Amino acid sequence: MKHPKHGNSTARQTASTAGRVPLIALMALLLAASAVADDKTAAGGSANVHQQRAAVEKSEKIMAEAKTRSGLLAQYLFMRDAYASSTDFSFRVIFNQYLSWYQTWVGDYAGARNSFSIVQKAAKDDAPSPLQDAAYKAEPAVDAIARLAKDRKAVFFNENHSYPLTRTLTVQMLARLRKEGFDTFAAETLYQTDMEALPKRGYVVSDTGFYTEEPVYAEMVNEALRLGYRVVAYEALSDATGDARETEQARNLKREVFDKHPDARLVVNAGYAHIQEHGKYLGGAAMAQHFSRMTDIDPLTVEQTMLIPHDKQASDHPYYRDAVQRLAPTQPIVFTDKDGKPWSLKPKAYDISVLFPEEVLQRGRPTWLALGGQRVPYEVSGRMCDEQYPCMAEARYEGDPDEAVPADRAVIEFKGRVAAFGDKLRQSSDPHPVTELWLRPGKYEILARDVANQPRHRQQIVVGAGGKTP
What we know:
Elements: H1 8-32, H2 49-67, H3 72-84, H4 89-105, H5 109-115, E1 137-140, H6 141-148, E2 154-159, H7 165-179, E3 184-187, H8 197-201, H9 215-226, E4 230-233, H10 242-258, E5 266-271, H11 287-295, E6 300-307, H12 318-327, E7 333-336, E8 352-355, E9 361-362, E10 365-366, E11 376-381, E12 391-397, E13 408-412, E14 434-439, E15 442-449, E16 455-463
Parallel strand pairs: 2-5, 2-6, 3-4, 3-5, 6-8
Antiparallel strand pairs: 1-7, 9-10, 11-14, 12-13, 12-15, 15-16
Helix pairs in contact: 1-2, 2-3, 2-4, 3-4, 4-5, 6-7, 7-9, 10-11
């Protein structure tokens, strides 16, 4: 079954939406004056607005040029080389985020976290640490959120678009929330143009959305489809930014969900502060605030972007570093008191804060790709590249065509092609470079593509509980 071709008007609409998404995201960051974490980018806030806007325009042009390359691997390498060949500090501050999106799309999650990371400093509106109050105890986030959602009409999760760790809990929660009666799933930057074909097809393709090119995001949407959720797009269709975009997103949610299905129970995945329930956002109000006003529904808001590990410990929130050292969590946790009331780092803005474990790399790839034990590592060798390096290995569920976004993908290359972005692979007894794909037990087809996007190897595999073919 091949991916259906869109008509001309639909294709133009999809292309237009795709082109707006990165620009909107970057302008939102500029308006919010977010601080970027590492030493290379921390001074970005001091660059004047003119320099930042020029950097955004340059980044847009480079990304548009990358899109003309055949295949995701060639596009990624073009983006990587564009970064490595520039010494313009202001440009790198902005382009880091564009590069990080591509790094997540090709499975280089460690590289993406290093490229773009937001400093999480202590702030005046932070609640006292739950570790200072004996009333609070840590518990698995999956259990606490499922319990807190029982009587809610809507649950809003947020994410860091450059760090798919912040998507992993949402994927795990979909089954738990479906059992509680939730039946509709909406995600930021899904394209309206694919919403009719998507449930019939049953899997995500590149034209499903902007961030769905990343395998964990695609897994999130695919899991919702598998569980029987109605999947809804709510992204603004206009060129609106700031408060106007937030208002349009909320209006779209109301129209597409509760106007059509008054008894619906909704799960939303959105970026950063789009889900905040109080305070100014981009000169106005956040999507969640507009949503509550329009629907009279109070969503359970789950904050997942603040208590996370960064590439440098100095960029972590002080509470995060303290909790990791004292509790050594092995799964996402939240804090609740004896009555089950959740703790939030920003209690006026969000209902509950999630703290993620420290990141652990295995052959250069994070073990959080296990998705809470749902997936296991499966070793793949550069032998399948047919001596054409770099190449990209992709694993798709049995029966999915090449157009489907894979369950996982990774770039295989020899170390040292670009010094700043040396490959993260580790050698084994295999003389070729090796890496691991993280997959649920089941049947897959592995496809290796070269830089020209040509297939170099196809292989049917069966992944057992231990990651090996039974």
